[in-house]
Amino acid sequence: MIRAAELIQRKRDGAELRAxxxxxxxxxxxxDEVPDYQMAAFLMAVYFRGxxxxxxxxxxxxxxxxxxxxxxxxxLGRKVVDKHSTGGVGDKTSLAVAPLVAACGVPVGKMSGRGxxxxxxxxxxxxxxxxxxxxxxxxxFVAQVKEVGCAIIGQTADLVPADKxxxxxxxxxxxxxxxxxxxxxxxxxxxxxxxxAIVLDVKVGDxxxxxxxxxxxxxAETMLELGKRAxxxxxxxxxDMDQPLGHAVGNALEVREAVATxxxxxxxxxxxxxxxxxxxxxxxSDLDVDEAEGRRRAETAIGDGSALATYERWIRAQGGDPDxxxxxxxxxxxxxxxxxxxxxxxIGAVRVGVAALRLGAGRATKxxxxxxxxxxxxxxxxxxxxxxxxxLAEVHAGxxxxxxxAGEAVTAAYTIGDEPPPPRPIxxxxxx
Length: 432
Known about the structure:
Elements: H1 4-12, H2 19-30, H3 36-49, H4 53-65, H5 72-76, E1 81-85, H6 93-103, E2 108-112, H7 122-126, H8 138-148, E3 150-154, H9 161-172, H10 179-192, E4 197-204, H11 213-229, E5 233-240, E6 248-249, H12 251-262, H13 268-284, H14 291-303, H15 306-317, E7 332-337, E8 342-347, H16 349-361, E9 375-378, E10 385-386, E11 391-397, H17 400-413, E12 414-417, E13 427-431
Parallel strand pairs: 1-4, 2-3, 4-5
Antiparallel strand pairs: 5-13, 6-9, 7-11, 8-10, 8-12, 9-11
């Protein structure tokens, strides 16, 4: 019989629990043998007392063991890579990186989630493509990675079900933002999904979960340790989210920008992050290349058109229409003009993300329906010089009324000063 109250008390008092005790608690909760009120109390004890490295791994391992796991290496006969982002505003990186890496000859099998709040989800972006299916069977998933080189699908209900239940409980008990719980949640899904090597994109700044570089580095180090304990190769890339990534924020708008980047026409910061992520994944693959050679091959795949061709094969394989003209478009587009001369010194990523959410690009609750055509395009980015009346951004909206409200919010997101801000790279640090 599980001794939940005893474990709660010991964690409350700062004791370190044994791996088998943590596993017993988590697996019993997944079987409905521990009620929500006891697990909520345990999570609050963890929030205040934290978990040791050994406890964090035990929690991660127990969540993995609560459901099915996938061994892509066994099924494909070679090393498979994956990428995960901690979420941000305008982060459509996976849409470009997956086909780019596949075009270089490395299989990418990825399970993604939906967005909630001001951060967009990869599945939501993909579902703006007419006909595209994100719910594939295990057999379809493996077959597509074999034949096309990449697949991005929704997480199955049987993969890490304990994490899904725990996350829902954390969301309503103010225990989401505890570092060990965050790391265990992310890594349990990545490890269960079967990739051998993983690049983790940890966002830092206003539009990210981790606001400071120190906090992001601590999260990255925790996830690296979990990956090593599980026998996987992991690289953590800390990237800037003090402004939206690229120009586009909104589902179909972000798909268009990802496609433009695969043609070599993407925004500078997004183009750099895509190449950097692809280079790390290729260096972790079985191609036996270093990061510099990986980057060169990624640049070649964009230049010779093979990255774009792989994207189109991937989208067709999942039932979608890769023609950009098939993507939904907003009913109205409103220009946002610069209120004064000067330099863009900052763009509030959260403000832009919330403006896009209110237009219908995101969800305030999990049951909200999306308008895939709406969003914001930030034409001027940090460091750009603008003149009064010059285009700062575009609002893509379902109505003139919505466009006007979002236009005011986007204007307020911009800070314009007399001097240019110091340059800040998109990649802030790399941990391996």
